Structure formats: structure tokens, C-alpha cells
Amino acid sequence: MEEDVTCFRTSLAEGFKICDGSITDEEKSSDIKTGNDKSTFDFSEKTWTNDFALIVEDEKLYVSKAVLALLSPVFNRMFQTDFREKDQTELNLPGKKVREMRDFLRSIYPGMSECISDENVYKLLPLAEEYQVTTLTAKCERFLISRLNKELPADDTKMMLQTAAIYNMEDLLVKLCKECPNSLPEMLFRQIFSYLRKSFQRSWIN
Questions:
Q1: What is the rounded CA–CA span in Å between residue 34 and residue 132?
Q2: What pLDDT digit, counting tens, does each position of 34-50 carry?
Q3: Order of strands across the sheet with 90-92?
Q4: How far apart are CA 121 and CA 139, in angstroms?
Q5: Do residues 90 and 52 make contact, with C-beta atoms less than 8 angstroms apart?
Q6: Pairing relation of β-strands 59-63 and 52-56?
Q7: Phi/psi zone of residue 184: left (φ > 0), alpha (ψ -120 to 50 degrees), beta?
Q8: How far apart are CA 133 and CA 73, in angstroms?
Q9: Are 17 and 11 in contact, with CB atoms under 8 Å apart?
Q10: DSSP strand E in the chain: where?
């Protein structure tokens, strides 16, 4: 299974000449935001429930250790084992963007409004994978599926296809083949079909 996934991902990367799942600032500015960020909570104020701060681009995002540990296995291990963060009250996150981390926290925190959009979905997925928040990956997959239609531009279809391969989104792959078959080169369409067939066969056997 692992070998099939590796070969499949390699084929996509070579076929589309895309090195990773990121989008440039230029591409980002051209996106049309369709999600509604109804929450005004930006994690900038410390409350009695917050006992930890994530430092991103010199800004502090105040959070609860218990909530992060419950939602993310990575944070859970960090706060319980011999990691230096166990007894600290702050964690610096170099290389992260404060806007993206706010969207990430809004997307996983209980009671927060849905904030996944065309503008941030491809930024949230790497964070979901890094912190092993599988529920967020599933939310992003559902959002991408909701964006599918036969008039979807070819470049968007290719981005979704690569994303589906990178993050093992089989439901999205199936929908892509069904809803946008004309946007996929025939060779890659056959590869996707073969990959899905083998995957489903293995699931059925197991």
C-alpha cells in the first residue's frame, strides 16, 4: 500500500510539475474567499482558561494546554513527556504565519465558527498534518469536495488532485474522477482509477 501511494504521488508531481501543495502569494491574492469567518475571537487576549501562549511572528496567541492536548496528539505528547515545553508557558513557532495559525486554531477549537475557505484551505492542511489533527484534514476534504463542479478550472482541479494524493483523500479522488474527468489527462486518470481500485480491494479483503 505504501509503495503504491509513493508511486502515485510521484506520478502526480511529475505530471503536473508541482513541487509541493503550497500556493504563492500571487495565487493566494487571486483566490475568491467563499467561507465565512463569523468568529471575531483572535486569541490575542489572555483569559482565565488560557495557560499557554504560542508565539508567532512576535505575536502571542493565548490558548489552553488542555484543549490543544485533547485535539492534537503532537501537543499532547509535548505537554506530557520530557519535552522542554512541558513546564513552559510559551512556545515559539518560527516559520509560521500568525494569520494561518489563527485560522488553524479557529478551525479546531470547540465552539468556533467554520473558517475554512478557498483562501486558506491549502494552508490549513500542512498544519493539520504537522499537528496530526485528523478531524481538520477531514473538514478540509469535505470543503474541497463541496467546491467541485464540471466548470472548475483545470489548474484548480490539478491542485485538488495533488492535494488528494498527498493527504490520502480517497473520497476527494473519487469525486474528482466523477465530476471533473475532462480536466484530467487520460494517463493520470487511468493511474488514479488503478490506485483507487487497488485501495478498495485491499480495504474489502481486510
A1: 26
A2: 333 434 578 988 888 89
A3: 59-63, 52-56, 90-92
A4: 10
A5: yes
A6: antiparallel
A7: beta
A8: 8
A9: no
A10: 52-56, 59-63, 90-92
**69: buried, middle or exposed (CB in 10 Å: 19+, 13-18, 0-12)?**
middle
Cell of 98: 500568525
Closest CA to 8 of 205, 204, 189, 203: 189
Q: What is the DSSP letter of 86?
A: G
pLDDT digits (tens, 9 = 90+) for 75-98: 998 888 666 656 688 999 999 999
Residue corresponding to grid cell 512576535: 58
User: 56: which strand partners?
Assistant: 59
Q: How many residues does the chain have?
A: 206
- Cell numbers placing 139: 473538514
Give CA–CA dist 26/34, Å, rounded: 18
Which H or E element spans position 146? helix 134-146
**How far is Cα 149 from Cα 87, in angstroms, rounded to an integer?**
49
* C-beta separation of 172 from 146 below 8 A: no
Which is nearest to 63 in space by CA: 40, 90, 85, 100? Answer: 90
The predicted pLDDT at position 157 comes to 81
Let me know: does 192 contact 172? Beta carbons within 8 Å: no
